[in-house]
TrEMBL record:
The keyword Repeat applies. Keywords: Leucine-rich repeat, Repeat. It comes from marine sediment metagenome. InterPro entries: Leu-rich_rpt, Leu-rich_rpt_typical-subtyp, LRR_dom_sf, LRR_domain-containing, LRR_R13L4/SHOC2-like. Pfam families: LRR_1, LRR_14, LRR_8. Residues 25-46 are annotated as: Disordered. Residues 25-36 have a biased composition (Basic and acidic residues). This is Disease resistance R13L4/SHOC-2-like LRR domain-containing protein. Residues 161-232 form the Disease resistance R13L4/SHOC-2-like LRR domain. Coiled coil: none annotated. The keyword Cytoplasm does not apply. One of its GO terms (cellular component) is cytoplasm. SUPFAM superfamilies: L domain-like.
């Protein structure tokens, strides 16, 4: 087919010399089509570093299909690789029923976004997950995880960590080392407390603890000075501590569906608060 195509292009070139502008248009179109074909081929087989290409090959064996190149990875992308220059910077392996990750995965040194939702990491994650020094977004929702490795605290560049809908009841102390973390979603798990070190998350803006087992607010969150959103709906909170007033940046506090019968006076000290949801509690009086 390639030979025929080349002859076709050659004929168009010759025709252009004979017939002028009309044929030039056709030739341009053919070149445009050729460019599109090359672009499609590039997306199917991106030009990346050898060791990173090997990782894609290993993943292809694990999931039974190639991983297409995409311009950006966003929901609902289930399978995709994002390339910048000759580096893989984004990888989505959502809903692939993975139970393990290949050892070579840490060769993706430039990885910034890693989406692993909807898999089956029932044996946990490898310690090597902490080797992704450039990682900014990590999604591990819906994975039946019961523990996280201590090495999670080595992801110093991490901005978003999504652990929604797992079997987690505790976090490693090392979580407090994530100084860049801005969003932490621990909703739909089995948490009833949080480690003291959580107060070290100085950049944290959003903390989602929806549908857990909290009966009281862990004092460790009182140091989250940057926190703007705290979601605690569907827990078993019976009271709010006075230290809630420490959260000076708090704008959104969601306490729907708890067992609160009263609120502390200090709640009035939250000068930045814009949205307070107290529906479906047992309140009889407000401060």
């Amino acid at each position: 087919h390639c030979e025929t195509k080349n002859i076709y292009l050659l004929k168009k070139t010759i025709s252009y010399n004979e017939k002028g502008i009309q044929e030039e248009k056709n030739f341009s179109n053919s070149r445009g089509e050729e460019k599109k074909r090359k672009e499609k081929k590039r997306k199917e087989k991106p030009n990346i570093k050898v060791e990173q290409a090997k990782v894609l090959e290993e993943l292809k064996k694990l999931i039974g299909k190639p991983i297409p190149q995409v311009d950006k990875i966003e929901w609902p992308t289930t399978l995709g690789v994002k390339v910048e220059g000759d580096n893989i910077v984004g990888l989505s392996l959502n809903n692939q029923w993975l139970m393990i990750l290949p050892e070579q995965i840490t060769d993706l040194k430039s990885l910034q976004e890693f989406y692993l939702s909807g898999n089956r990491f029932i044996y946990g994650l490898p310690e090597s997950i902490g080797d992704f020094k450039s990682l900014k977004k990590l999604s591990l929702s819906k994975n039946q995880l019961t523990t996280l490795p201590e090495s999670i605290g080595n992801l110093f560049s991490l901005i978003e960590l999504n652990l929604f809908k797992n079997q987690l009841s505790s976090l490693p102390e090392s979580i407090g080392a994530l100084k860049s973390l801005q969003t932490l979603d621990l909703s739909h798990c089995n948490f009833w407390t949080l480690p003291e070190s959580i107060g070290g998350l100085k950049s944290l803006k959003k903390l989602r603890l929806i549908r857990n087992r909290f009966s009281s607010l862990p004092e460790s969150i009182s140091n989250l000075n940057s926190l703007q959103e705290l979601a605690l709906r569907y827990n078993q909170l019976t009271e709010l501590p006075e230290f809630i007033s420490n959260l000076k940046s708090l704008e959104n506090l969601d306490l729907e569906n708890n067992k609160l019968s009263s609120l502390p006076e200090s709640l009035g000290d939250l000068k930045s608060l814009k949205d307070l949801n107290l529906r479906h509690n047992e309140l009889t009086i407000l401060p």
